[in-house]
Amino acid sequence: MLALGLRPGKTTIIIKKAQAGAQVSVAYVNSPTFITISGDANGIKRMLMAVESKGAFTRKLLVNTAYYSSYIDLVLQDYINSIYDLKVKPNASKFGIRMHTLITGAVVHNPDELDLVKPLSTGFKKRSRKNAVDILVEIGPHSVFRGPFVQSLQTIGVSSVPYFSAIIRSENGMQTALGLAGTLFNHGVPLNFTAANGNKSSLRPPRTLVNLPPYQWNHSQKHWAKTRLIREFKLREHGPKNLIGAPFSATSANEHIWRGFLRFEEQPWVNDYKINDLTLYSGAGFITMADTQNIRTITGFRLRDIQLISAMLVSPDKGKIKYTLNLKAGPNKDWYQFAVVSFGDGRSLTYNYIGIMLVKYDNVQLGLIEQLEIAAAFATASSSYHQTIDPGKFYETLKHVGFHYGPCFSNVTSLFCKPGTCVGNIVIPDVGFTIADTSPILDNLYKERPHIVHPTFLDAVFHLGFAALMGDGQKVINPMVPTYINEIYLSNRLPINVKKHLKGFAYIKMAGLKNLQTKIAIMDEQESSPVLTIRGLYCSQINNATSGAANIGLPPVVKKEAS
Length: 563
Known about the structure:
Protein name: PKS/mFAS DH domain-containing protein
Organism: Pyricularia grisea (Crabgrass-specific blast fungus)
Structural class: alpha+beta
InterPro entries: Ac_transferase_dom_sf, Acyl_transferase_dom, Malonyl_transacylase_ACP-bd, PKS_dehydratase_sf, PKS_DH, PKS_DH_C, PKS_DH_N, PKS_mFAS_DH
Region (N-terminal hotdog fold): 241-364
GO molecular function: fatty acid synthase activity
């Protein structure tokens, strides 16, 4: 048998020209452009040479019998007699299982319709929804008709119909037939498993064996399926924390992940931060997440290149908001890349802020020269003439331009300002889980602290910059939100005692028309050394007249070198 890349009419002409005569005939019309011929060896050889000379496709089939040719007449009657007793089961159509003949494409009802002499064709003349099929199974020595069937189905716009064969060349026929049964069952075809696996000629039904020797169970070895995620969750060293949540399984050895849920009933202070009547999670809250880790052995943090990309809109009606803090090793030793990602609607992922952080388990205090410079700047700002600003009026002014700070965020208690400079006191608020001022041992106070700085205090540090911009308190400013910070230094010696006051100062200047650049420092209780510094804080204005979803995303980052 020989497969040819020719049309039926062209094939008949070549058969005549090659003088193959009755020795070769068309056995199978695979597709409109693909034909299989059958005949004796000499006729097939002449056809092979004739077609190859025309540059058409040829492939000799791996069979030793000239199927669907006149040579099959010798065994045709024996073949019909061997299948004469086959009957179509009356309930076969109930399951949608039909057998088709490739001679006419019609459904087979009796063995007389099966033929090994007449040519076959996959191009059925009758196509209807009644004859539509979901699965095609070929009963034959190999899936030789798979390609032609797929091509024929594609010509009528049908694709993705599963095609299987009962027998596969060079494989055990019983195994391939049973494999076909399993495949059909997986595709939803009802099967008689007793017929597939059992022996119908058995005189007795199958029984369970009860005389097998006892199995030697090894009870010393426990086999309990636990995934890495479950194992790490159950054996985690630290539980959840209010600001960052609980440790979560990472995807690599150099990565740390915390996953948390923002709930109003657990952190009611969140509701005290509003801009243009929208309740947002404070940008300071994202920053404090990065430094809320195992503080027992950490003396401080340096955070650099902080980009606050998108604000997190919160509302009691939205329920809990899922967020994650990701830390992974940076390009330099001891530096980590960090990012806070939230899932505000429960489906889409939003990057809220990114940056890099230095974490050391030894002294990470500011350099001596830097400490002296900040102390000198603080002394200069404190000694120069400033106008006293009432904090109540200050927050009332901010409220008129869109900033709505509730009691948890209104933590500036005194202000002494002049244009571009401000000195003020900030009180540490009681937000429900800050360590009380009655701790008997100071070292324990710093070791057991839940965080280095709380968002409500850090956000109040930003307020010193707004006060410096207002100068004498009469200048009206537009609502601004932090968008970029060159560097933040946080010392583990920063007090967190409730109602304790810390003094700080801010220098400010405008960077363009809508961007604010400032330097801020908070001093220790002795006012001799800084415990919190901010260099290169850039704030961008947002439209005061606009509300709704347009204000949720922050303006583009304005990244400049701080002077």
